[in-house]
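[job 0412] stage=fold_complex status=start
inputs:
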Amino acid sequence: MYEVFYNNAVGNLILVCAGAIPGYWVSVATIDTLGRKPIQFMGFTMLTILFIVIGFAFNHLSGHALLALYVLAQFFFNFGPNSTTFIVPGECFPTRYRSSSHGFSAASGKVGAIIAQCVFGPLRTRGAAKGATGKAANPWVNHIMQIFALFMLCGLLTTFLIPETKRKTLEELAGEVPGTDNYDPVMAGHSLKGDNSSNEETKVLEPAAGTEKMV
Amino acid sequence: MLSGFGAVPGCIALYYRLTIPETPRYTFDIARDVEKAGVDSMAYLEGKSTGKPDEIKRVTTLQESATTLEVPKASMKEFWSHYSQWKYGKVLLGTAGSWFFLDVAYYGTLPSC
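[job 0412] stage=fold_complex status=done
writing structure:
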């Protein structure tokens, strides 16, 4: 029993120290220059490729090669969607819906985690002989990796739906600032009330575009 | 044992969550408590956590503004009517969907499980 926990701990430490922590710091360094959306795109793309390689070459790869690929996958989880899926919903929604929407997004992530445990956990050992150890205990694991590649591809597609939020204020992202790309008179409350004060403010900031949208 | 120890940082986090001040953005925009939002923002600029508004002035302003500003109640209906517009709904679908797909693979490949 001690051996099992010890090996588990060492395996986790290697993955985290070599893959996850460097990935996270690269994210920290580049998230405001590359932007959130490119990082998420790149991350999902790399993960799709990595899981295809792991999945289809699983029985031809040595233990070391597999470890290297797992470490790389951890790196691109963290220099990729694991950071950005947390950051973007905290920024892209207006104050009224922000925490509900971040909560909704996080909750759907937890649903994914439950599916990973309940569906893919048992699938992994499908067709294994009783008392088998090592690779023989998880004969279906290569197919699981192939399925995960498909999931990463779906993640790549959903990334098209999110906006880029780097270097913008929350008010700008919520469409409350006239003259910016996201400006939305309804969200800003300008078209509802139509009071003079906000009209003048708009003219000062962006005469042509602002007044057109006010009508 | 292990999950028992996990409760310790959880309790510390809960303490901070209960005592953290409300953001002036929310107080001003959503709760429409203009007086408190102003004082809180000033306190933040001075490096303090929350401001202490003059309670009588605050209540008077709230009562006066109640007639001119309507304070919309947060409700599921309102949430859905906002997100059923594709323009806003697609963003929520994007963030929720990518988080979902990520977590399936992320928690599926952890060696501990």
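[job 0412] summary: The CA atoms of residues 106 and 112 of chain A lie 10 Å apart.
[job 0412] exit 0
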